[in-house]
Amino acid sequence: MKLKTLYIFIFFISQISFSQTILGKWKTIDDETGKEKSIVDIFEKQGKVYGKIIEILEAENRHRKCEKCEGEDKNKQILGLIIIKGLKKSGDVYDGGKITDPKNGKSYNCKISMEGKDKIIVRGYIGISLFGRSQTWIRQK
Predict the structure, then answer these.
(1) Is 57 a domain residue?
(2) Does the pLDDT of residue 30 top 50, yes or no?
């Protein structure tokens, strides 16, 4: 009986910890306008976290290219663009990578933290985290 109880306990703990991850699909909300902009799929590859735009919610922007982006992202379609690159988990925060704003083509340092199980705070900043902007993204089911 004790062994069965232990298995049930481990199952529930693993479910709780699984739901406390930034991996998955997230609806982006513009911090300036409050409008829903896109769906980003956050995934892990070779121990680092990346985010790719998989849907653009504003019809007029669905076929835009990242004209102001630099390097390999210049003139790429925004739909399919990997905007989060190289984050690593550090305690309860994911950081150490970059995020690109397709609107202006600039890349910023990035950190992401969970706010409950269905919200994340995505912060892009220059230098130290104090100098930046944050957005709240909502998990898509």
Answers:
(1) yes
(2) yes
Rg (CA), the chain: 17
Q: Domain count of the chain?
A: 1
Does residue 33 belong to any structural domain of this protein?
yes
Question: Which pLDDT score, from 0 to 100, does residue 130 have?
Answer: 86
Is 8 within the bounds of a domain?
no
Q: Secondary structure of the chain: what % helix, strand, coil (to 5)?
A: 15, 50, 35
d(CA 100, CA 14): 33
User: Which pLDDT score, from 0 to 100, does residue 83 have?
Assistant: 98
Helices (H) and strands (E) in the chain — how many of each?
Answer: 1, 8
Q: Report the C-alpha gap between 110 and 125 in whole angstroms.
A: 6
Q: Can you give the pTM of this predicted structure?
A: 0.84
In a domain, 94, yes or no: yes
Q: How many CB atoms lie within 10 A of CB 141?
A: 6
> What CATH number should be reported for the domain holding residue 36?
2.40.128.520
User: For the segment 76-102, what is each residue's pLDDT rounded down to a tens digit?
Assistant: 999 999 999 999 999 999 999 999 999
